[in-house]
Design brief:
By secondary structure, the protein is mainly α. 69% of the residues lie in helices and 1% in strands. The chain has one domain: Farnesyl Diphosphate Synthase (Orthogonal Bundle). The chain is globular and about 55 Å long. Strand 1 (112-113) and strand 2 form a beta hairpin. It has 17 helices and two strands.
Length: 344
């Protein structure tokens, strides 16, 4: 149930490389970021360094730092390498993301993350929590080097991540969770960091407030759409694609938008008696069958499409630039995933 990090992405219809690489300089920028990302978490304690670099070494698309770099690049009409500050901002947001994954895997009791052992599975919960805290502290240190406004924004975003995740936990196994509670949760746990990634890029590039607001609105809309689609895929993808049972979130008591919309439909009378507490595999599969047969999935996909289109509208307010081209490519990537989910 972690934000933006499911193996469900293997079923998406486009290449898994960073879609922002339509910007000619982005590959070199991300290579540079990768090296500095690892260097940023080197500790005087080699044991801590090993734990802190574990998921960095496992790889990732680096979408959040890519958004920071692309947002900063919207300041220029021509392609050019990212500034040192844009790279630093990108590292800060990625470290926040990684720290949240360390903590998320402890809460989920996850065994695998990015095809490797999760940190908690290899080193235990206590060390995973401390290493996650270390990553968040390093992120805060880097943000502070970029100025008070960036530091304050990142601190606020970390708080929103906590609020969003806690709101999800608050409604575990609750059939009374409603759409508003779900949207407030993913606003915090997923969309807030993507919005901050874009705004930090705007801040380090010295862009005007209206320009920064448009970029942050894009990141927010992208994050909301992504999480909804990810939650749909949990219900429509097969176990071979996901590496975990279909309907895993529902089995864990996390009732996402497709489930909530089904509960609020005529099929709710069939679904409600099955869920609301721990379920065995047969009950989970029956609940998934009911959700797939009802209106919840297409309605959730329509919500995701609306958010994705809202993000594109925000970009349309900005002058043409390689950065805007890159972010539009990311929006195209996301819309492709929405349409693929709709076709399942």
């Amino acid at each position: 149930m972690g934000p933006f990090e499911s193996s469900q992405l293997a079923s998406w219809p486009v290449a898994r490389s960073n879609p922002l690489q339509v910007i000619p300089s982005m590959t070199a920028d991300l290579d540079r970021l990768e090296a500095e990302l690892t260097a940023s978490v080197i500790s005087t304690n080699p044991y801590l360094t090993e734990i802190a670099t574990h998921l960095i070494s496992a790889g990732g698309k680096r979408v959040r730092p890519g958004f920071t770099i692309a947002a900063a690049a919207t300041a220029h009409a021509t392609d050019r390498p990212a500034s040192d500050d844009a790279i630093t901002g990108g590292i800060a947001v990625e470290l926040v993301h990684l720290g949240s994954l360390y903590h998320d895997d402890v809460m989920d009791e996850a065994d695998i993350r990015r095809t490797v052992d999760s940190v908690n599975a290899r080193w235990g919960n206590h060390k995973a929590i401390l290493a996650g805290d270390f990553l968040l502290a390093r992120a805060s240190e880097l943000a502070a080097s970029l100025g008070v406004e960036v530091a304050g924004l990142l601190a606020n975003t970390i708080a929103r991540l906590c609020e969003g995740q806690l709101l999800e936990l608050q409604y575990t196994y609750s059939v009374d969770r409603d759409e508003d509670a779900y949207l407030r949760s993913i606003d915090g746990k997923t969309a807030s960091l993507l919005a901050a990634s874009c705004r930090i890029g705007a801040l380090v590039a010295g862009l005007p407030d209206a320009h920064a607001d448009a970029l942050a609105n894009f990141g927010y809309s992208y994050g909301m759409a992504f999480q909804i689609v990810d939650d749909v895929l949990d219900l429509v993808s097969n176990e071979a694609d996901m590496g975990k049972p279909t309907g895993h979130d529902m089995e864990e008591g996390v009732y996402t938008l497709p489930v909530l919309l089904t509960l609020d439909s005529p099929l709710g009378s069939q679904l409600r008696p099955i869920i609301g507490g721990p379920v065995d595999a047969d009950a989970r599969d029956e609940a998934v069958r009911i959700v797939r047969s009802g209106p919840g999935i297409p309605r959730a996909i329509e919500r995701a499409r609306d958010y994705a289109n809202s993000g594109r509208e925000s970009l349309a307010e900005l002058p043409s630039s390689p950065g805007v081209d890159g972010l539009n490519a990311a929006a195209d990537y996301l819309l492709s995933s929405v349409e693929a989910a709709a076709a399942v």
